[in-house]
Amino acid sequence: MTRFISFLAVSALALLATAQDAPTKPAVDKSYNRNNINQGLGKHLEGTRQEPNVTEWENKAVWPEGCRVEAEAAELKAEDFRVYEVRYGDCDEPWHMCVHDEAGSSKEHLAEQFGRIPIGMRAYVRNLVAQPQHFEKKTITAHFRSTGDMTTFVKVELATLVHEIGHALDFLALKDKMTRDGKKVSSFSKTKLWQDAVGKDSNVPTEYSRKSWVENFAETVIMATFDQNVPDARSKDVGPWPDSQKWDLFEEQLRTVVANVGGEITPDNEAKCKNRLQNSKVVPKNARTPKRELGLKPDLRIRDVSINVIEGDSAKDAVVVDGCDHNH
């Protein structure tokens, strides 16, 4: 009888670990070597880097609607933003970048760092937005909106971009979005498949992974991207932990990320963009500007018929994953 009760207790705890709003598993360690993560990604994602061609929009009276939404949410003035078209050699369709005059990331830095990211990951970002740090909590460095728009508030690290694009993969790239009771959910990280993977592991990769399922997935994307691309990623000198066996503690989470988005997180110098989020509409910076003064609006529609065009969430229905809590 005691053995049966113990079995029930263990089973209940296993269910509890995946029935919460966030994982209840402990982190692999209380800290990890983030410098090694950034150095490894910076060195070995170099092969996927495409030199950006950054051009400012000639028409200063209009901008992408996604940039407007981000600026209004932060109570920033449209007139303080510059809009750029950013092109890379691995995609015939450009991205669009809105940079505030006092932004933490310059247009050059953001475009260069973004270009290091594999094209399969970049494809799920619509607009890049650079704003000044305006939060009381100065550790917030970036956030993602499920329209496909990514906003940074500081001079962004490469690991931060990978984390935020992990959110893009979670919300927009992965289609198995059903909970264990068959309900539709907004992100892959809230599905039975992902939460069962966490349930099979003894740990989650970082303390920040314990904040929510969404952050748990994005943190695992960082580790999987590092593990897949950096030689000797699990070694003492190169990896985030001195003990390579730490990786075994969240192996099922790593395996599930690689099984579902492995093609996206691995660089390929010959790769071209196969998928792209549909671009924003173009809207006036000032709603009171007469139509005759708006000039010719850029046509941002994706024209390459070989590209699979994906729709992000509407601004009304979008989820905001509110801010990396360190330069992450």
TrEMBL record:
Supply the alphabetized keyword list: Signal
> Signal peptide position in this chain?
1-19
- What terms describe the molecular function in GO for this protein? metallopeptidase activity
Segments spanning the bilayer are: none
Instruction: Give the InterPro entries listed for this entry.
Output: MetalloPept_cat_dom_sf (IPR024079)
Q: Quote the protein name from its UniProt record.
A: Conidiation-specific protein 13
Which organism was this protein described from? Answer: Pyricularia oryzae (strain P131)
Question: Which lineage ranks, top first, belong to the organism behind this chain?
Answer: Eukaryota, Fungi, Dikarya, Ascomycota, Pezizomycotina
